[in-house]
Design goal:
about 475 residues, mainly alpha, elongated
């Protein structure tokens, strides 16, 4: 019995320890979320306050009896469904819900007037037919991209409210009186949401979109710098840290690409927000800039693919061009960081933002010209490399031909061909230059954003750039030659 008691005590102790560990992890996760974004704590308090105020409709006797037993709770439900983290999202859902409810009530009243003049059976047929047409039409409207983007919530509310009122009115003559009372409580709930969201420490979708674009710039700068640094690492140190750096890069790419869908939602909500500060947030221009940044991110992603390629350039070739390539990457990172800083501070960028990048590209061009022989086939006397079919054909005989061909990989064929040793490096450099070309478009979009958003002019010592700064075409100024 003592042994059994000890075993039972040990199991209870381990269970308690397990629950304590789980509680500690949950507590840490909750605290971490609040530290990373204190606005979430504020929003949670705001929702609690709004729900409490909306509950007064149900808890106070005069309001409860005036609105009706079944309708008073709709104020609380409206607050829970409408109040969102940002003011734009709250306005989007609140206005959609209000318009959808009023439109459904008006249309249901019209159907009711028509149905009452066609008899009891005719009324049922009319209601059924109107429900069918409304359900089909509203569902089809939700497939239209513009309606889906801006009015989806309103269409759902319209369909739900119309069916509840129209079908309910068949056996209840007081359904319209009840629906009007319900609209009062819904209006109270929407009003509480809008006041809470707009007037009490508001969170703006436009500002979140602004911060998301800045974060995208910073993440791209880190990714490009990490890609180039890893590409030129010597094999010994590269193998030791490859897995951790690859994981970090993949996480960065995931965050960048996740921003695309987030930015679309933020732009939609920002379009509903009023002007609330000295800076405007032209959401369309932010979306355009985000699209251009996404293209740059895809180029950087392909650049990262060079690190995982099966065919790699020799270290001797990489060492020859390490300094100019790293210099170009360093200047790309500087330009991205400076652009992020200009957007963060709401001012135009310097006209000399890409001067050093021009110099870095010219340095890379000069290095390639001095080592142009590396980009030729290793056996120049051989006029034509062996074709893959010829290589395979010389090794395949008899009925086993198909099986052997299926077992032969592309990598085996590639090693037989007379490609230049620097060919994989050529792909890497081409992508690096393509990154610079994409950066040209980014600079143009940032300047367009600065004009539309009325950013401050750039001031450097006694010089000032008034109205606008014309971005310089980086590749055109550097005059990079093809190899």
């Amino acid at each position: 019995m003592e042994v059994a008691g000890k075993q039972s005590g040990g199991e209870m102790g381990s269970a308690a320890a397990w629950w304590a560990e789980r509680a500690r992890k949950i507590g840490n996760a909750v605290a971490k979320e609040g530290r990373e974004d204190p606005r979430k704590v504020v929003h949670s308090v705001k929702v609690g306050m709004a729900v409490t105020v909306a509950s007064m409709v149900y808890l106070l006797e005069p309001l409860f009896h005036g609105m009706g037993r079944n309708n008073s709770i709709w104020a609380v439900l409206t607050v829970i469904l409408v109040l969102e983290f940002t003011a734009g999202a709250t306005l989007y859902k609140g206005i959609n819900r209000g318009i959808g409810t009023l439109a459904a009530l008006s249309f249901a009243l019209l159907i009711e007037i028509v149905a009452r003049h066609v008899g009891h059976i005719g009324c049922a047929i009319s209601i059924g037919f109107s429900v069918f047409l409304t359900g089909a039409f509203m569902t089809y409207m939700r497939f239209i991209p513009a309606m889906k983007k801006h009015c989806d919530n309103g269409l759902i509310v319209f369909l739900l409210t119309f069916n509840l009122i129209t079908v309910g009115s068949y056996h209840d003559d007081n359904v319209f009186h009840s629906a009007i009372q319900r609209n009062y409580t819904i209006a109270i709930g929407c009003g509480i949401c809008i006041i809470t969201s707009l007037l009490i420490l508001p969170n703006w979708s436009g500002e979140d979109l602004h911060s998301s674009i800045i974060s995208k710039f910073e993440d791209l700068a880190k990714v490009i710098q990490a890609c180039v640094e890893e590409y030129f690492q010597v094999p010994d140190t590269k193998d030791a840290s490859k897995s951790s750096k690859t994981t970090a890069l993949e996480k960065s790419y995931e965050e960048i690409f996740q921003c695309n869908s987030t930015e679309e939602s933020l732009a939609t909500f920002a379009s509903w927000e009023p002007r609330h500060s000295r800076y405007c947030y032209p959401w369309k221009q932010y979306v355009h800039l985000g699209t251009v940044l996404s293209r740059l991110a895809y180029t950087a992603f392909v650049l990262h693919g060079c690190l995982e390629s099966h065919v790699q350039a020799p270290q001797t070739v990489r060492a020859l061009f390490k300094e100019p390539c790293e210099h170009v990457a360093e200047e790309i990172v500087k330009v991205l960081s400076e652009l992020a800083e200009t957007i963060k501070k709401h001012h135009h960028f310097s006209a000399h933002i890409s001067d050093h990048l021009h110099e870095a590209l010219e340095e890379l061009d000069a290095s390639i010209k001095t080592q142009h022989q590396l980009f030729l086939p290793s056996n120049p006397t051989k006029t034509e490399a062996a074709k893959p079919s010829e290589i395979l054909g010389s090794q395949i005989r008899g009925p086993e031909q198909l099986k052997i061909r299926n077992r032969t990989t592309s990598k085996t064929v590639i090693t037989r061909l007379e490609f230049s040793e620097a060919l994989p490096f050529s792909a890497f450099v081409s992508l690096l230059i393509e990154t610079v070309a994409q950066l040209d478009l980014v600079i143009e979009e940032v300047e367009e954003l600065a004009k539309v958003a009325h950013f401050k002019e750039f001031h450097e010592e006694d010089d000032s750039i008034e109205n606008k700064v014309v971005p310089v075409k980086i590749l055109r100024a550097a005059k990079i030659s093809s190899y």
